[in-house]
Amino acid sequence: xxxxxxxxxxxxxxxxxxxxxxxxxxxxxxxxxxxxxxxxxxxxxxxxxxxxxxxxxxxxxxxxxxxxxxxxxxxxxxxxxxxxxxxxxx
Amino acid sequence: xxxxxxxxxxxxxxxxxxxxxxxxxxxxxxxxxxxxxxxxxxxxxxxxxxxxxxxxxxxxxxxxxxxxxxxxxxxxxxxxxxxxxxxxxxxxxxxxxxxxxxxxxxxxxxxxxxxxxxxxxxxxxxxxxxxxxxxxxxxxxxxxxxxxxxxxxxxxxxxxxxxxxxxxxxxxxxxxxxxxxxxxxxxxxxxxxxxxxxxxxxxxxxxxxxxxxxxxxxxxxxxxxxxxxxxxxxxxxxxxxxxxxxxxxxxxxxxxxxxxxxxxxxxxxxxxxxxxxxxxxxxxxxxxxxxxxxxxxxxxx
Lengths: 90, 301
Prior knowledge:
The complex is a heterodimer of chains A (90) and B (301). Chain A is of the alpha+beta class. Chain A has one domain (2-14, 22-85): Beta-grasp domain (Ubiquitin-like (UB roll), Roll). Helices cover 23% and strands 16% of the residues of chain A. Chain A contains three helices and four strands; from the N terminus they run βαααβββ. The radius of gyration of chain A is 12 Å and the shape is globular. A five-stranded parallel β-sheet of chain B has the order 5-4-3-6-7, with helices on both faces. Chain B has a two-stranded antiparallel ribbon with strand order 1-2. Chain B has a two-stranded antiparallel ribbon with strand order 8-9. Classes of the chains: A alpha+beta (90), B alpha/beta (301). At the A-B interface, helix 1, strand 3 and strand 4 of A face helix 2, helix 8 and helix 9 of B.
């Protein structure tokens, strides 16, 4: 996983990796990320309420989550998730 | 899971679903469609003339860096206007230092003319100093007023006849609701993307006003821009943040909400704008509808 801009600052890291169980979804990856970096909770917003998230772009292997099945998109082992902040920086 | 094929070129895999239009776009078609959107906005609101000299307010954020790049491309292909980057240094240690570095790297890499104007030079103070003082208003209230003045001065200093800022569709829709909720209906005139011609002011235009902020972020990512990592330490726009959250939720549920909100605000402008008679501030001489301008009031001159 890669975190850009403010998300990097909020997490205190620019990259992370995690092991996934079979059938994991993009939403599960983000939940795991928040567990790993609690500072991301505010930045990612209420993931259960807004799908796909509006305050960030979630890219799975270069494809924005809204172009797939949102946070329900299955994630394969070896995939790259990139989080791009939306609501900061004019 | 394989993404659908791009609905424009029908050749490459799409990376983005534009929910409000139903399009699914590959990176090339997305970038091209964003450029076309900005071109249409420029024409819709009659923003430029052939041979304009356009000062683009570049803060170092994704929106302004994207606008600067797109405007340079569009003007080369169409009006042939010159594009100059103008940046305001508010004097916010850390936050602004990073942004100034990003602006310098972006502009020098493309050979774009750029100028930086500081609050210290213009007003004899900085946002760090203002924030440390006892005050009644929020830091954003000071910064907004002083930044507007500074951008105008910077645009004048480079001989520009237009000042382009990177307000996105989200900014505009938020401003419409903010004005309504604050009861500041007269403030609706500020969302006019084509600006007005007032003596002493470089005409301000907003060519990004129909670009959703998500698409600005995607454009910046696909273009390889570096994103600012530091938040402004003084940001405290509580009401705007609430409205942003509300509009984001509505947009996710009902795609197109932001466009409808913005266009509704535009329809209200002619009914509401009465046009204030402008005079000159008795302290600094800048244009103002009152006896003294907002800048002099805030700085206690």
